[in-house]
């Protein structure tokens, strides 16, 4: 249903004022055809005919509407994706991107609250939340002896229909004993840990990287999309209680920090 409305919206960009058919353009004849397609979609976004979350015409539909080759239509969509105008999801199509959310890097915010404050619907998909014994690699992350009881959760946080953060977290079981029993579709790990293990110290590290296949699948990324990966460690009552990797689509998310300096 959305795709039908979207296709007509782009056609009206050319025909609605009694102009030429959709494959024609008032621009110079030397204007590359992929640029014409990009401008048409950007104009539709600016005019409100295409809204965040609306499906963009497929390559085949653009080929028909603008009388171009498949390669030209593909280039237009790829460049719109690189510019952050559209999000391409394997098996679903291309959609107008939500305005890029900005996460707070220094302040520890609940991602569900951040998303709702932006006026969007929040949803969590829990991949796992299990108790296990720390292997050597995990024990090193939490600075604990091998074999210590820990919880290991993997959650995908969604803003509107888009996955915006993959959270993989290891939690010291003795510091948060109910963690493995909780329904993290109803509250976030941040909410529970803030109450149960009040923060004393936080350590952040952020890097841009190319994700592995599992991460791409859970965040709905193409093979060429990078991610922003934050490593967050938190301490409470004198001990390290949580080690988390918070991974965001690099083309749909940015991090910011602000602070004041006292005299």
Order of helices and strands: HHEHHEEEHEHEEHEHEEE
How many beta strands in the DSSP annotation?
11
Shape: elongated
Tally of contiguous helical segments = 8
Percent helix, as a range, is 25-40%
Annotated CATH homologous superfamily of the largest domain: Chorismate lyase-like
Radius of gyration: 23 Å
Count of structural domains? 2
Q: Assign the CATH class of the largest domain.
A: Alpha Beta
| Major β-sheet strand ordering | 5-6-7-10-9-8
Largest sheet: 6 strands, antiparallel
CATH architecture of the largest domain: 3-Layer(aba) Sandwich
Class based on secondary structure composition and strand pairing: alpha+beta
CATH topology of the largest domain: Chorismate lyase
Beta-strand content bin: 25-35%
**Low-pLDDT segments, ≥5 res:** 1-5, 11-28, 102-106
Mean pLDDT: 81
What is the CA–CA distance across the termini?
59 Å
Short description:
The chain is built from eight helices and eleven strands. By secondary structure, it is of the alpha+beta class. α3 crosses α4 (70-82).
């Amino acid at each position: 249903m959305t795709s039908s409305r979207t296709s007509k919206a782009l056609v009206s960009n050319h025909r609605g004022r009694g102009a030429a058919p959709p494959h024609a353009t008032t621009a110079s004849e030397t204007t590359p055809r992929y640029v014409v397609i990009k401008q048409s979609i950007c104009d539709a976004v600016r005019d409100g005919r295409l809204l965040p979350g609306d499906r963009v015409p497929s390559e085949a539909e653009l080929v028909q509407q603008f009388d171009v080759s498949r390669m030209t239509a593909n280039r237009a969509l790829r460049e719109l994706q690189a510019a952050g105008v559209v999000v391409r999801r394997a098996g679903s199509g291309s959609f107008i991107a939500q305005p890029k959310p900005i996460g707070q890097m220094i302040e520890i915010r609940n991602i569900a609250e951040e998303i709702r404050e932006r006026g969007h619907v929040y949803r969590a998909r829990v991949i796992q939340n299990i108790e296990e014994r720390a292997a050597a690699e995990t024990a090193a992350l939490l600075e604990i002896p091998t074999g210590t009881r820990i919880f290991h959760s993997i959650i995908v946080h969604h803003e509107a229909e888009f996955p915006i953060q993959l959270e993989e977290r290891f939690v010291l079981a003795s510091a948060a004993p109910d963690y493995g029993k909780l329904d993290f579709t109803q509250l976030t790990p941040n909410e529970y840990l803030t109450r149960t293990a009040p923060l004393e110290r936080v350590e952040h590290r952020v890097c841009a990287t190319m994700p592995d296949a599992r991460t791409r699948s859970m965040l709905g990324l193409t093979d060429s999309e990078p991610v922003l990966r934050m490593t967050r460690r938190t301490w409470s009552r004198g001990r390290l209680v949580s080690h988390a990797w918070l991974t965001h689509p690099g083309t749909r998310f940015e991090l910011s920090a602000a602070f004041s300096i006292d005299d």
